[in-house]
Amino acid sequence: MKQNAIIRRAFWKSKFLSHMPELPEVETIRRGLKNIVGRKIVKIFRSEKKLRLEPSLDFQALKGAKISEIFRRARYLIINLSNDLSLIIHLGMSGRITLEQEFKQLKHDHFACEFNDETWLVFNDPRRFGFVDLVKTKDLSRHKMLTKLGPEPLEKEFNFSDFFKKLRSKKTNIKTAIMDNHMVVGVGNIYANESLFDSGISPLRKTDSLTKNEIEKLIFSIKKIIKAAIKSGGSSISDYVDSHGNFGRFQDDFKVYGRPGGKCLQCKNLIQRIVQSGRASFFCNQCQK
DNA sequence: AGACGTACCTGACCGC
DNA sequence: TGCGGTCAGGTACGTC
Fold first, then answer.
1. How far is the C-alpha of A228 from the C-alpha of A43, rounded, in Å?
2. A18, closest nucleotide (Cα–C1')
């Protein structure tokens, strides 16, 4: 139906557009895609535009394969198939995955596959920082994007003793450090800023200057913020598919991100904006020391 | 070897 | 109204 495409367009023009696909977003999509397990792929679409990675294997190998499992590692969505192949999808900066009743190609649709129940999975990415790769499942762990990843923020591998060791061996600032995938995965610019505010730590602090107490607080804040974001982003994709139009709403909870010159919600001091490693940092220099 | 800067890309927004 | 410039950021990679 044409209406589906119109809804899809309206969805992206909403303020949800400013919500980057960080870990909570990808987790939300994974949950929203759970019910495609068992469906069989019958048709494949690929645009001629280059994405960040060229697929390792020909997408035609997807034909006839059944979806057997979907999981997430960092910001990578991994779909295992019945024929020992795996799809790896990364949304980059602007990627979207939707389920459609019909595939009517929109601008920036770069990959799509039809299932045996005539529904479509569509990957749309205006800026093409994302990618869709197809590899043998046994080669997954050797995939160059997956080999050097640090711990998942919500798993027990992201803990005080390991994080403490990594921070002590670094010479950079804490903001840049927590955005580094080797330290912990899935903490992008938004959550890095919000986590530092929540833990009262200035983004300017050198990693080896943090006290044990501050490191404990920071770990707690990162877990807390990401959990909260997953909770409030949980409606975006599945509700969209049902055409209910509920969008992720974690952006309403930003305390410092994107609020330069605004008043700190705790002390009324003005929020600062600086640039670190080429990325904007937002913080309150009263509340964050 | 680690730290930093830059390229990739399009759309939104701003000032003239 | 349009047009050019700037900004947004995840990740790999080049450079020092």
1. 37
2. C8
